[in-house]
Amino acid sequence: MGVITKASTKKQEIIDITKEIKDIVSESSIKQGFCLVYTPHATCAVIINENYDPNVTQDILKSLNNLVPEGKWLHDKVDNNGAAHIKAAILGPSEIIPIINGKLALGQWQNCMLADFDGPKQRNIFVEIK
Q1: How many separate domains does the chain show?
Q2: Which of 16, 35, 54, 86 has a CA between 20 and 30 Å from the CA of residue 92?
Q3: Cα 57 from Cα 64, distance rounded (Å)
């Protein structure tokens, strides 16, 4: 298993982790299989989407903020991050990417990213290859 550690610098941020995942896959001996990418944080998600145009990630954050506004959730009474938990639950903590001929089978415009909704914080991402 590989571990990627990233530090978000904003309250909400989408961070590309594709290169680090590719490096872990490359270092493995797996030519055909699957790559599980998982974050163990309740206010983060792992997503696959376009990162060539940075407007896509900004649009994702804007859409989620419109769908789940800050400051109106019961959990806010505990640590003021109810919206972050809901956004992370909608997107999910993991993705599975096929490995074909020793490489991630991502589409031309697809990258794998960590979405942090409760930063800035240091975050871990686990990468398991089978």
Answers
A1: 1
A2: 54
A3: 11
* Domain range enclosing 65: 2-129
Q: Which two tokens stand for residue 68?
A: 């789940």
On the question of pLDDT at 1 being above 90, the answer is: no
Return d(Cα 75, Cα 67) in angstroms, integer.
Answer: 17
Q: How far apart are CA 64 and CA 26, in angstroms?
A: 34
Three-state SS string over the chain comes to CEEEEEECCCCCEEEECHHHHHHHHHHCCCCEEEEEEECCCCCEEEEEEECCCHHHHHHHHHHHHHHCCCCCCCCHHHHCCHHHHHHHHHHCCEEEEEEECCEECCCCCEEEEEEECCCCCEEEEEEEEC
- Contact between residue 94 and residue 46 where contact means Cβ atoms under 8 Å apart: yes
What CATH number is given to the structural domain containing 45?
A: 2.60.120.460
74-88: pLDDT as tens digits:
898 999 999 999 999
